[in-house]
């Protein structure tokens, strides 16, 4: 399921581009008529320059990683994380918090490992929560920078496309002595607007929206992890830890969760949760 969601983002962008081109062909426009080097230079250069002026080089470095993350990211495995946290709760309940230290090298993500290490070190619960919440805030700031690159580009490119059209029209109006060339020249002039609007709405804005969604998945995972770690530190029963953490998991995915030391929700409870 997760793989299908990942592929859906790239397929959506490709489908939009292809269907727009097909629609143009049905209107009698050939793909080569939409290719105007001057429009690409104006829109590409203007959009990149305006975005760089807004976010600096640090923001521009996020373009390639941002595209990769938008098309390669999958929803977080909330069920798998619940299983791990309940397993840690079971270990801590039976053998004490110090027993978790031996399992820390096997923890797959740095955030969970850091939280458990704080617990093992005897850090106050309030301090543990505060430190981990600061980690989430810092992550959101980094994610927002990448998202802003594409969101700003989606705002700049249509306006710069209009600017490109105006530049072309200035050239057309300066050569009115050849009436036969006016129609084709005006048509070419509007390609800049078409490309600017198309880039904004088919590529830049969808990528920005996707990055926001991916960030939301990670925030949800980390918030759930904080609740699990704090419950482990308090010594809560694994069953209670499971009940709390399963509220983060979509009802249809809860049946697949195998909880060590804590049974799954009953069918009646599952139905109520849905």
Structure notes:
The protein has two domains: 1-35; 37-70 and 78-264, no CATH class. The radius of gyration is 26 Å and the shape is elongated. The protein has eleven helices and no strands. Residues 261-274 have low confidence and may be disordered. It is mostly helical and 274 residues long. Helix content is 76%, strand content 0%.
Question: Which helices and strands appear, and what pairs or packs with what?
Answer:
Blueprint: H1 2-26, H2 37-60, H3 63-72, H4 78-95, H5 110-120, H6 125-173, H7 182-189, H8 191-234, H9 238-245, H10 251-254, H11 267-273
What attributes does this structure have?
mainly alpha, 11 helices
Major sheet details: none
How many β-strands, per DSSP?
0
Tally of alpha and pi helices: 11
Structural class: mainly alpha
What is the global morphology?
A: elongated
What low-confidence regions span 5 or more consecutive residues with pLDDT below 50?
A: 261-274
Mean pLDDT: 86
| End-to-end distance | 19 Å
The percentage of residues in β strands lies in: under 5%
Helicity level: over 70%
Summarize the helix and strand pattern as letters: HHHHHHHHHHH
Q: Please tell me how large the radius of gyration is.
A: 26 Å
Number of individual domains:
2
